[in-house]
Design a protein that fits this description.
This protein is an alpha+beta fold. It is built from seven helices and 17 strands. The protein folds into three domains: 8-59, RNA-binding S4 domain (Structural Genomics Hypothetical 15.5 Kd Protein In mrcA-pckA Intergenic Region, Chain A); 69-129 and 213-235, 2-Layer Sandwich (Alpha-Beta Plaits), CATH 3.30.70.580; 134-208, Alpha-Beta Plaits, CATH 3.30.70. The chain has helices spanning 10-16, 22-30, 90-94, 120-127, 147-155, 188-195, 226-235, and strands at residues 8-9, 34-36, 39-40, 46-47, 53-55, 58-59, 69-74, 101-102, 111-117, 135-141, 158-159, 162-163, 168-171, 176-181, 200-208, 211-212, 221-223.
């Protein structure tokens, strides 16, 4: 297939439809779940306006979806996955009229702010580790917090054979602290606390970059406002 001006990479074509991010589209292609004009697609394929692309047998719309950007206050127990076969998946919980997918993850046992969109380009930008986007959490642990604990958390803790980046940590109460991360390791805060002899009782994400959870009720979502959206789009340049 010629790579002329009217063609588009397969992963971008899928992403532009609002189905998933480019990274997730690549995974779908590798799993053999994508067809191009009735044949199993391969990574690197290009799509022309006349082509037909299907995922799991469902034809993808040729029209690019109108961009959607929302903030959601995720309850405990909801899984940040687009897999509708998973009980408690975030897509079925929100029931948005358009196809959307989460930007990053927030583990099942945690609650708080997560962003969702149908804009795969934005997802790639935000998830890129080198961008060092801040994420702020409020954490309650099972015993009184010491100065040493705050210092150790801030200086970096060895988990999974690696030392976490230095970060901002502030004591808010006897057993409550805030922490600002620029990493997204799996269950990072919980692992850090465990390594220092503490157990996390509750964990809430209250900020992603310049976007704050604010007074958004648990289990509800809202569209990003103009200032929030402008800030994200600026970072995507």
């Amino acid at each position: 297939m010629s790579q002329n001006d009217s063609s588009k990479s397969l992963n971008k074509y899928i992403s532009d439809s609002g189905l998933c991010s480019r990274r997730q589209a690549d995974a779908l292609i590798e799993e053999g779940r994508v067809t191009l004009n009735g044949k199993i697609a391969k990574k690197g394929n290009r799509v022309l306006p006349s082509d037909e692309v299907s995922v799991d047998g469902d034809l993808i719309s040729k029209k690019k979806a109108k961009p959607i950007y929302i903030a959601f206050n995720k309850p405990i127990g909801i899984e940040c996955t687009t897999n509708r076969n998973v009980n408690g998946n975030i897509i079925d919980f929100i029931k948005h009229e358009q196809r959307i997918f989460p930007i990053g993850r927030l583990d099942k046992d945690s609650e708080g702010l997560i962003l969702l969109t149908n804009d795969g380009d934005i997802v790639n930008t935000i998830l890129r580790a080198e961008n060092k986007h801040e994420k702020e959490y409020i954490v309650e642990v099972d015993k009184n917090i010491t100065r040493e604990f705050i210092k150790q958390m801030g200086d970096g803790v060895t988990i999974m054979g690696k030392v976490t980046n230095k970060c901002k940590v502030e004591k808010l109460g006897k057993k409550v602290f805030s922490i600002v991360l620029t990493q997204g390791w799996n269950r990072q805060i919980r692992r850090m606390c465990t390594e220092l002899g503490y157990k996390v009782k509750s964990l809430q994400r209250v900020r992603i970059m310049h976007i704050k959870l604010g007074e958004l009720p648990l289990g509800r979502w809202r569209r990003l406002n103009h200032v929030e959206l402008t800030g994200i789009l600026e970072k995507a340049k």
